[in-house]
Amino acid sequence: MKQVLQSLKTGETLVAEVPVPQARPGMVLVRTAASLVSAGTERMVVSFAEKNLVGKARSRPDLVRQVLDKARREGLLTTVEAAFNRLDQPMPLGYASAGTIVALGEGVEGWQVGERVACAGGGYAVHAEYAAVPVNLLARLPQNVDFESAAFTTLGAIALHGFRLAEAQLGETVAVIGLGLLGLLGAQIARAAGCRVLGIDLSPQRVALAQQLDLEAVTRPEAESAALAFSRGRGADVVLICADTPSNDPVTLAGALARDRARVVAVGAVGLEIPRKVYYEKELSFINSRSYGPGRYDP
Fold it and tell me: How many whole angstroms separate alpha carbon 35 and alpha carbon 42?
């Protein structure tokens, strides 16, 4: 079968011929009909792969610390060999797809060959003709949902989990920072739950797209005054950070937009140096949302 792979050593993205995976115990084999390219996560992986060794080290100091710890435990030569072996292994891209079950692994109950499903999970719901996926990362598709729409399910689950963590109540004001795909999904989920939603983005084009979806939205320079007016001078009850940037600006902006004792949830990958003064003075609650929520990391 064909599969999209990323070389962490050379930075090359390629379509390779690989064996069809087996449905191991607790998993099903899915024939992929559509898979979603995540502009944020996959762009980050490709960008990392394209860097030289020094660039990789600078962009991932956490991995450098792991390598140094391993070298102290197991020796330098063993660690270097393991690191280069890891770089030599192509990495599968993708974590959101949809298709049809064609085989069941041992012990799988409640699922049938021929069922249409949405699939999730890095290393599972990959860009490939077939994918072996654990049953806890599947969702059945209603008959009126096509495969291309269903491929967005994983991104919707990420946005929904962040919104649930915020515990937003009916009628509360929710500010959404970052109006990419994740932010637009989060804003629409908040609106469907009965919240008043204000979207914010650096890009006038993304703001215009949000407005086409009948969402209130402004650019970054207008954010603070707009949020104050939109919340009738009170500040946002909830701030969902859905941006994708190493900058700390979204976290700083969230503190400025929030009312006293508001909830701030980081859904996207952003800088997390929390400005203590404003977060302390407003007694803000901050949560870093993890993936799609309950079940994602179950064994």
Answer: 13
Mean pLDDT of the chain: 88
List for the chain the helix, strand, coil content (%; round to 5). Answer: 35, 25, 35
Q: What is the pTM (predicted TM-score) of this model?
A: 0.83
CATH no. for 2-145: 3.90.180.10
CB under 8 Å to 127, separation ≥6 — which residues? 3, 4, 32, 35, 37, 92, 93, 94, 97
d(CA 70, CA 85): 15
Query: Domains of the chain: which residue ranges?
Result: 2-145, 156-288
Whether residue 80 has pLDDT greater than 90: no
CATH numeric code, 156-288: 3.40.50.720
**What is the predicted pLDDT for the residue at 174?**
99
Output the pLDDT for position 41. 66
pLDDT at 111 over 90: yes
